[in-house]
Specification:
This protein is α/β, with parallel strands linked by helices. It folds into two domains: 183 residues, Rossmann fold; 115 residues, Rossmann fold. Helices cover 41% and strands 18% of the residues. Strand 10 and strand 11 form a beta hairpin. The longest helix is centred in the middle third of the chain and has 22 residues. The radius of gyration is 22 Å and the shape is elongated. The termini are far apart. The protein binds 6-O-phosphono-beta-D-fructofuranose (F6P). The site of 6-O-phosphono-beta-D-fructofuranose (F6P) has 11 residues, from loops. The site of 6-O-phosphono-beta-D-fructofuranose has 11 residues, from loops.
Length: 325
Amino acid sequence: MSTPRKLGVLTSGGDAPGMNAAIRAVVRVGIARGLEVIGIQRGYQGLLENQFRPMGLRDVSNTIQRGGTVLHTSRSAEFRTEAGLRQAAENLRRHELDGLLLIGGDGTFRGAVELAVHWPGQLIGLPGTIDNDLCGTDHTIGFDTALNTALEAIDKVRDTAESHERFFLIEVMGRHSGFIALHVGISSGSEEILVPERPFRVTEICERLCTAKARGKTSSIIVVAEGNETGGAFTLAEELKRLSKNEYRVVILGYLQRGGTPTAADRLLGTKLGGYAVDLFLEGRTGVMAGEVGGHLVATPLRETFERRKPLDDYLLRLHRDLSQ
Ligand code: F6P
């Protein structure tokens, strides 16, 4: 009998809800297809430190509903050095892996492209990040949950804003992109949405808020993407206060957005892309990311997923102008 082919799986970068659904699908579909699946703990750092462990069917029981990642994760600066990449390749050879599935964001995929220079095995990415900033997939695993978490928080803040007739600035994550801000801003009926993709002047925001107040609006929510060019919600609040004399309260949602039970959409996406990534491996593909675009499963070269900036929905942005009066 021939030895089964070995497929590794790791999660890297920021954890995202739905990563466990993806790991579970990789393990179960991989085993169903006759593969040996090896989990690598703590992302690229664990790869450097030889933290490999065989994954069986029961290792992923009761994980689909859990946030975070059962494989743990890391951001490893050491991995990205020449010595780190060589060491990682050496470890993959020693454990006789034929392929490696990487669940993470742009940093993870940049690392994979560099690793490909040193290791001839198959490298396949799965988009796991709350930021939704990767091309080659409509949504990344974790985005929908983060969005819903932020939405619930903003709805609560709205109660206070409305009761006290206050202005609130709510800062959401997303690194350099405004997907969470735009989508949660629209769904929460927020008055302003400030994203890095659309430069703005603070005076302009101030004027719009004052006009809305004059029209009878008693509270305003301003959603600020953390990557906006003004330096974050606190700085912006100071500036707005200086210009308008109104009081602005600030809420930074931060890491709350990364954890929690994944939504059905994220469980489904993680599961689908986990299975598809295994299929891509069996087809002999490498250097691609498994994604879903317009309801179709697609494989996109890893470089393309992070080299081009994924555009925000322009229609939503334009619509917001009319909705937020
Ligand atoms: O990429 C996910 C993310 O949560 C970003 O939205 C945020 O800017 C960043 O990670 C925070 O990174 P860290 O976990 O290293 O603080």
